[in-house]
Amino acid sequence: MPVGIFRVCLVVITAIVNHPRFFPKDNGTVPENAEEIIQKMKEREESLRLEQLRLEQEIADQEATQKALEKAAEVVEESKEEKVRWDMWTALSMVIFLLIELWRQDFQDGNWQDTGGEEDDMAVLGKAFKGVAFPDKAVLASFYEKRILGTTGDMARMREMVEGFADDLLEALRSVCNRDADMEVEDCMGVGSMYENWRVRKPFVCDLIVPFAPPEPYCFRSQTWCSGDSFPPDEQGYGTIKVCRADEDVTGCICDKTKLGEDMLCLLHSQVNTTRPSSEMEDLLCFKNTQYLDANQVMKWFQIAVTKAWNRISHKYEFDLSFSLLDLPGALKIKFRSGKSIAFNLTPVVQYENSDVYFISHFPRSGLAADLPSSTHWFLTFAVYERRFIQLISKTLPANACHVSCLQILSFLHGKQCSLTGPSGLTNYHLKTVMLHLLQVRPSQDWAPEKLEARLQDMLKFLEKCLHEKKLYHFFIGNGKVPAELGFPVIFQRAEPLNLFRPFVLHRDVYRKTVDTFHEMLRNTSALINEYTVHIP
To answer: Of 169, 202, 229, 526, which is the most buried if we count CB atoms within 10 A?
Structure first.
């Protein structure tokens, strides 16, 4: 019995102990769920660890990127500062290099500065005369009388002969031309050194200009570089000539200045009046498909007309006439049977409005000057006003004034020097321009004949100054002090001054050659004058 009770109690106690309400973890199904939970917890732990590693890696990458950006910013800032310093040194080096190059070009061939440390000849006005033995008054007077006057005495007779023949030739030219279709030729005029009485070098050549006009009902309308429209620097001093009908108003309507659309029509000018056949304009010596007068066609027409005129009157003369120079279409030469010859230039020109300024088809130019921009651009010549100014100012000067003598001596010296060392950029027109400027600024009593030496030195010093500055302005263009008695057009007085030495800026080799020739002429002045002067004890 006690044993049975003990067993019953043991079973009861065992059941109580194993009841899930009291000890749930000791349930028989718990071990399987625990393993799954543990496995999931391990996987979760592993994923959290990987996520932590990934986040740590991203944080490290971000810190590295930030440091790299900061370092790059520092490098860029340093490079900017270095670049600024480098650009400054580069610019400074380029400036120094250009200065050295300019100095080398100026002085490598010219010997303008002595190696012994002497002063530069062109540094100060008049320095080129230091050490130059200039002839005295007596030598200059003797030279002028024996050399200049002795060789120019027959100029008047030559001018008279050429003018008479030219008048006869032009009269014959009018007779062979068609008055209804060809250009109308007017009387010729003499210009240049032969008619201003200062030419000294042989052969003597007379320059004659022949104005011409278009046949009715046409007329010329000209436009110059200073008429308002912008002209490039290389076209200053030029103009264009348009051939129009006399009843055509080219300035009052814009249809001639702008391109109208195909569906637009000018109510003032019908298409029949504004468009002319190309052959008609070419017959009027215009450039192809334009209304602008062509200088080349004008010269061809003039040469043909002169040839026809000479064939008509050649039987009256005992000499031959021919064109002498290919590069100067108006150059003619009279050849006598004795072998002697006389040269003269007969050049057609167009009058500018109602003045004595003329558009000249071909003008003798030096090698320094550039070619014409085109054959429709005509050079303006003020030769008639230059001759009138010299005649006008001569009336206010003392008797036997020395202005022409100075120009003749200077032209002679320059010509002789060029024959020894070759041509330079200076021309006789430049020398005459120097004289015109000095005639305007110096008092009339300074041109007395006994002051020949002083005025000649003034001209040389003025020319030296102009060469040094590369500036020699045209006497009439931009000169507001032109005497009113000349009736000079105001439009040219108000224009910007025209620098005749502008090509020296563009052609440095010609400039160096010109300055060298000028200095050599100064050094040889006494020798050249004494060579052609009778000795004075």
So the answer is: 169
User: For 118, phi and psi rounded to 5 degrees?
Assistant: -75, 165
Checking phi first, is residue 31 left (phi over 0); if not, alpha (psi -120 to 50) or beta?
alpha
Based on the domain organization, do 344 and 210 belong to the same domain?
Answer: yes
Full domain range(s) for residue 403: 120-149+396-536
Count of CB atoms situated within 10 Å of the CB of 445 = 10
Does residue 26 carry a pLDDT above 70? no
Closest CA relative to residue 249, chosen from 267, 264, 269, 272: 269
**Is residue 111 helix, strand or coil?**
coil
Q: Around 183, how many Cα atoms within 13 Å sit in the side-chain half-sphere?
A: 28
**Confidence band, pLDDT 50/70/90 cuts, at residue 49:** confident
Contact 489, 478 (CB under 8 A): no
For residue 495, give the DSSP letter.
S
**DSSP states of 143-180 as a string?**
HIIIIIHHHSTTHHHHHHHHHHHHHHHHHHHHHHS-TT
φ and ψ at residue 530, rounded to 5 degrees: -65, -30
Torsion angles phi and psi, residue 360, rounded to 5: -110, 135
Name the strand (E) or helix (H) holding 323. Answer: strand 319-323
**CATH code for the domain of 460:** 1.10.1410.40
- State how far the Cα of 319 lies from the Cα of 337, in Å rounded to an integer: 6
Q: Is 68 helix (H, G, I), strand (E, B) or coil?
A: helix
pTM: 0.71
SS3 state at 14? helix
- DSSP 8-state class, residue 25: G
For residue 418, how many other CB atoms are within 10 A of its CB? 15
Asked which of 381, 410, 426 is the last residue of a domain, the reply is: 381
Q: What is the full DSSP assignment across 391-403?
A: HHHHTTSPTT-SH
Per-residue pLDDT band at 9 (split at 50, 70, 90): low
Helix (H) or strand (E) holding 107: helix 30-107
The half-sphere exposure of 53 on its side-chain side, counting CA atoms within 13 A, is 6
Residues 365 and 504 both lie in one domain:
no
Task: Report phi then psi at 357, rounded to 5.
Answer: -90, 140
Query: Between β-strands 205-213 and 341-351, what pairing exists: parallel, antiparallel or unpaired?
Result: parallel
Q: Please work out, in degrees rounded to the nearest 5, the angle formed at the alpha carbon of residue 107 by the alpha carbons of 106 and 112.
A: 110
Q: What's the rounded Cα separation, in Å, for the pair 286 and 280?
A: 9
Looking at the structure, tell me whether residues 297 and 208 fall in a common domain. Answer: yes
* Listed residue (242, 227, 174, 498) closest to 378, CA to CA: 242
pLDDT, tens digit, 9 for 90 and up, residues 367-410: 444 556 688 989 999 999 999 999 999 999 999 999 999 999 99
The DSSP H or E segment spanning 299 is: helix 295-313
Residue 496 CA to chain centroid, in angstroms? 14
Q: What tokens does 455 get? A: 């005025």
By mean pLDDT, which of 210-214, 225-229, 471-475 is the weakest?
A: 225-229
Matching residue, tokens 């021919």: 322
Burial class (CB in 10 A: 0-12, 13-18, 19+), 266: middle
CB 148 within 8 A of CB 200: yes
